Amino acid sequence: MANNQKAADDKKPNIFVRAGRKLKETFSELKRVTWPTFPKVVKATCVVLVVVVAFTVVVTGINYGLQALLDVVTKIGQ
Question: Of 15, 29, 39, 43, which has the most beta carbons under 10 Å away?
């Protein structure tokens, strides 16, 4: 009987109990998060948009240049 009791104590809780514990831990961590202020969010968003636009311009320029080079190379072959 003692072995059965020990085996039952060592058994992992079911998936719902474990998920509930993880969810509780997650919410307690979220309470400790320092959320950014609205001006910081706007500033960070603007930085991201500027970087995306800059990379788009660079990639488009490279694409245009390579397309022009390809046109020159294919016209020479004809």
Answer: 43
